Structure formats: structure tokens, C-alpha cells
Amino acid sequence: MSGPAPETERERRLRELAGRLLAHPGLGGPTTAELYLDELPPDAPPDLIMPGDLDLFGSLARRRDGQITGVEVMLDGTKSVADFLPGYERDLTSHGWRRFEQFHRRPGGFDAGWHQGPEAVFVNEAAVAALWIAARQVEGGGTEVGLRYDRENAANMMNNMSGPGPEPPGWDMLPALRPPPGVNLQPQGSSGGGGRWTSEARAKTEMPVPQLETYFAKQLVAAGWSRIAGTADDTTGWSSWDVPNPGNWRGFLLVLSPFPGWRSMLVRVETSAGGGAGGWSSSVSAHR
Which of 55, 75, 198, 207 has the least C-beta neighbours within 10 A? Predict the structure, then answer.
């Protein structure tokens, strides 16, 4: 089996140019940037855990005084974002990472992921490192995953992890729901409190209702929900769910075809015990 072709002088100079353009001054002094095709830097930190079942496209190493300060990685895969993230989070947790919970977080549902930013941020206290994860669906149904490993800002992040009091019960039970590739989702807002949380959206698509309901249902299963009952036809698809969380929570997913070429979606969690005071709402009108 032959190895990679030797790098030409032009390719070497292009790689050097990219490295110079990507270098930037830092608080602790200037950094260098070096690109690697199809591989990680030879001095990549051991706590930088790579996701399984993904192909490594390339990486970028940032160094100061010859020491790694950050690594950026691009990977490609065939799994959906909903299938990729839960497994990778379990792998990170088993290696000493934990999710960094930012304040003023929004509930999940169809609003989640609408904002610009990473899918998740993790910190590793032992390594004093932070990891940003960004994943998106690409044409053809594949997934593009970007990782940004950082040692420069992790200490400040972890020093500021204490925050306000607890959020209202159940606010975080709606998993992030993302549309199929090629479907332009328009979130219609989220609200909740008092033991009930709801997210709504609509989409201009000809995708059959049963197929769309199944697509979102797979993401609920990936989040640990257990289907109780449900059915779907040309105009209506619904399913009820058991939500794996203390407090007797149940979930509900609804997909409708109110007009030709349009689909309306709703996902909800609620508990018969009620959730006390506190709540949250948003009103979103945006288009991709």
C-alpha cells in the first residue's frame, strides 16, 4: 500500500502561507499556526479525544514557544448530528471531560441550534482545557464536525462556572431537534414553566408527514426518550413518549400538514406533578 505523495514546493509554500495567515497575537505572546492534512499534530494533547466513526480531514495546531496552546480539527462522517453527539459526549465524559453549562441557556426543541455557535462546550479540569464542538448536516446526508481544543481560555471559563440559582424544573428536557437536510426549518418560539415546556416550528417542504415525524422521533430516541404510542397519515403524525427523568415526565410530538407544501411541528414535555414557579418564552420569526 503506497503512502501519501511527496509534498511539492508549491504545496509547501501554500501550507506555510495558510499558517502565517492563521497565526495571531495572543495575551501571552505571538502564536504560530501549522496545518496537517489527514492527521493530527504529532504533539497533539492526549486528552484531545477523537470521535469514533468519523474520517479525519485535517487539523491546525497553534503553538507558543513550541508548546501547543490549541488544536482545531475537521472531520467528516455519515451519521446524523443527532446520532453523533450523544455517543461522543459519553466518550468524553469517560475520559474526564464534562459539559460546560453557560448561563441564560435556552430550552431545547426546534429553537435549539438556531443560534450561531457550537453544539456543545466541554471542560477538563485535570488538563485545564476546553473543547468546542460544532456539527452540521451537509448535502448528501453526511455530517461535518469541527473541534476546537483550547488551553488559553479554559482556566478563566472554569473559574466562572458558579452562577445563579437553579433553573425551573424540566426546562432542559427538550432535546435539540434539527431538520432533515434540505428542509428549511422556521422556529416559531418556545415557552414553559409550571411543569410544561413546548417548542414549535414550521417548514416549507413536500416531505411526507410520516417521514418527517420519524426523522424527529429518531432524535428523541437518541436523547433517551421511549415511545409509548403514535401513528401518522398524510396530514397528521403524532407520538407520545416516556421521558427518562425523575418526576413522571411525558413527552408529545406532533407533525401536521395544514396546507399543501407546509408542515407544522410541536414537541412538548410535561408532568402531572407540576413544576412550581418560573418560566421562559421566546418568539422567533426567522428564515434560513
Answer: 55
